[in-house]
Amino acid sequence: MFFGPVPVREAEGGILGHSLSAGSERFRKGRRLSAEDITALEKSGHATIYVARLEDGDVAEDEAAHRIALALTGPHARTAAAFTGRANLYAEAPGLVRVDAARLDELNGIDEAVTVATLADYEPVEAGQMLATVKVIPFAAPRHAVERGEQLLRGHAPLVQVMPFAPREVGLVLTRVPSTKDSVLEKTEQAVALRLAQFGSRIRQQRIVSHDEAEVAKAIAELKAGGCAPIFVFGASATVDRHDVVPAGLTRAGGEVLHFGMPVDPGNLLMLGRHDDVSVIGVPGCARSPKLNGFDWVLQRLCAGVPIARRDIMRMGSGGLLKEIPTRPMLRDQGPRAGTDVAAAASPAPRRPKVAALILAAGLSSRFGDRHKLLADLDGKPVLRHVVDHATASSASPVLLVTGHRADEVRAAAGPDVTAIHNPAYAEGLASSLRTGLSALPQGLDGVIVCLGDMPDVSSATFEALIAAFNPVEGRAICLPVIGGKRGNPTLWGLQFLPELMRLDGDSGARSLLGPHAEWVCEVSVDDPGILHDYDTPAALAARGVIKS
After folding, report:
1. H/E element holding 8?
2. DSSP state, 230?
3. Which partner for 479 in 113, 195, 257, 492 could form a disulfide, CB atoms 3.0-4.6 Å apart?
4. How confident is residue 512, by pLDDT bands cut at 50, 70 and 90?
5. Residue 155 CB: number of other CB atoms within 10 A?
6. Mind listing the pLDDT tens digit for each residue in 477-495?
7. How far apart are CA 129 and CA 224, in angstroms?
8. Listed residue (375, 531, 408) closest to 465, CA to CA
9. What CATH number has the domain spanning 58-164?
10. Which residues have a Cβ under 8 Å from the Cβ of 517 and sit 6 or more positions away?
11. Which of 67-76, 237-246, 321-330, 421-430 has the weakest average pLDDT?
C-alpha cells in the first residue's frame, strides 16, 4: 500500500489520509476522493495532501476487518458491518463469553496491520454487549495476513463465543446451630435468590437442618431426588477442611468432593463437589452478602452450562483478589455482578447501538394517479413490503411504520413485523408524519433510521452499514449513505437531534438539518444504487419492474 503526500491534482481516486476542510465542507480521513472533491480542495488552497492507494496484495480495511471478524465469531455472537477498518462482535444473549486466549495471541502476532481485542475469558455479558473488536490499523491489510488469520481461526473451536445462561432449579441446604438466628437464614436465602434471579433461575426446594453430617447427607439426597440441580449448602460454621461437616455430608450421601478451597478472596472456603451428574457446592459464608466473591464465578459457570473441574478452580487466582481495599473501592451494593471499580462504573460496557427504523408511509401518493404507489406490486409483493423486509432483516429494532392515506391498506401491505402508528394530520406534509413516528419511539434508543416507504431497493446491508458507522462519541451522529459521490436515503439520526427533528413542519424533511450540523455528518460509502431511487410515478416504477395492481 502506498501512503504519503501527493499534489492535490494527482490525488483523485486516492484515500484521504487525514481529515481536512474544503471550504464549508469537512472531508474525513478515509474518504475516496472524487474529481469534484479535488476541485473543492484546490479551490480551498490545498496544494499537497496525504493519500493512500491500495496495491496488488492489499485487502481494503473494511473487507479485511469483516473477514477476520466473521472467522472468529462463534455461537450466540453477531458480527456487525465494518466501518473505518473496524468490525465489532456483540453478544446475542446474556451469558459467559469464552475466549481462546492462546489463539488470540497467535492471531495478533500475524501482522501489525490486524489487531483483535476481546473481553476476558469467562466475563459475564448482557445481550447486545460488545465482545470483541477487530481493527485494521492502516487503510489496507496484506492479503497473506488476512488469509493466514482466516486459516488460523477456521477448523477449530470458535475464538469468541457466548455460553448463554439457562434457568436452573436449585436446591438449597442451610445448616444451623443453637445460636443461629432466623434472620441469618432469611438473609442467606434472599442473597441466593437474588443471585439466581439474574440468570432466570430460582430456588426449587430448601432444607434447614442441624449442622450435622447425617442431616446434611439426608438433605442433599432429598433435594437430588426432587430434581434440584445444582445443590448449594451453607454451613452454620465455616468449613475448614475437606473432612468437615459439609464435605463429609456430601460423601455420606454418595457424592464426592472434587476440590476444597479456591484461590479467590473472598471465597477461599468453597467446596466443589458432585453427586452423580448434579453439582454440589459448599458455599463460603461470604456469599451471605450480595458483594462479589468466588462463589459468583462458580455460579455464573453453572448457569451457563460450563463444566467446572478441579483444575478450573485452581486457575482462578489471576484476578481473584476481590477484597475491598482503600485504593480500589468496589461498588457492590447493587448485587453480586456489580463487582467493578469506580472508573468502570462511570463508563458502561460497550454495546451494540440501539437503533430503530422509522418508515414514513403516510403520503397521499398524488403523483401515482388512481393507484397508491406503496401498494403497487413489485416482484410479487407491494412496494412497501420490500422496504419493511429490508428494515426487519437488519439489526434495527423496533421497526415502526407511520400511516396516513389509506391507512388500513398500507398497514396490511406492510405485514405483521412492524408496529403501525397512524398520523391523522398526514395531509399537512412529511414533517407531521416524522413527528408522529418520533413521538412513538421507545425509551433507551441511541438513534433512528428514517426511511421512505417508496424506496424498495435499499438493502438491509445499507441499514447495517449506517449502524456500524454510527458513533456519536467519535463525532458520527448523523450517518447517511453515499454512492458515486451522491448522497441518498435513508439517514440515521442520533437521538440528540430529536428536539430539532420534532420542530420541523410542512414538507421539509430532516435533510434541512444537515447543514447546521455538518460536523456530526458521516458519509457512509455503500454499493447500493437503491439509496438514490424512489418511485413516485407509474413510469418510474414501470422502468424498475412491471406494475400489476
Report:
1. none
2. S
3. 492
4. confident
5. 6
6. 999 999 988 999 999 999 9
7. 36
8. 531
9. 3.90.1170.30
10. 477, 478, 497
11. 321-330
pLDDT at residue 438 greater than cutoff 90? yes
Rg (CA), the chain: 30
Region 379-404 average pLDDT: 95
Query: How far apart, in whole angstroms, are the C-alpha atoms of residue 64 and residue 145?
Result: 9
Contact 30, 20 (CB under 8 A): no
d(CA 279, CA 107): 36
Residue 460 is placed in which grid cell? 438491509
Superfamily (CATH) of domain 355-544: Spore Coat Polysaccharide Biosynthesis Protein SpsA; Chain A (3.90.550.10)
Percent of the chain whose pLDDT exceeds 90? 82
pTM over 0.85: no
Q: What is the predicted pLDDT for the residue at 23? A: 85
Sequence-ordered list of residues with C-beta below 8 angstroms from that of 239, at least 6 positions apart, any chain: 245, 246, 247, 260, 269, 271, 282, 284
How far apart are alpha carbons 54 and 30 in whole angstroms? 12
44 CB-contact burial (10 Å; exposed 0-12 / middle 13-18 / buried 19+): middle
Instruction: Scan for cell 478451597, then name that residue.
Output: 261
The H-or-E segment that residue 502 falls in is: helix 498-502
| pLDDT above 70 for 38 | yes
Percent helix, strand, coil in the chain (nearest 5)? 35, 30, 40
**Given the DSSP bridges, would you call strands 231-234 and 202-210 parallel, antiparallel or unpaired?**
unpaired
- Give the list of residues 6+ apart from residue 268 with CB closer than 8 angstroms, or none: 261, 262, 284, 294
End-to-end CA distance of the chain: 53
Local confidence band at 274 (pLDDT 50, 70, 90 cut-offs): very high
- Which CATH entry fits the domain spanning 169-344: 2.60.40, 3.40.50, 3.40.980, 1.10.10? 3.40.980
Does the domain formed by 2-53 have CATH 2.130.10.10? Answer: no
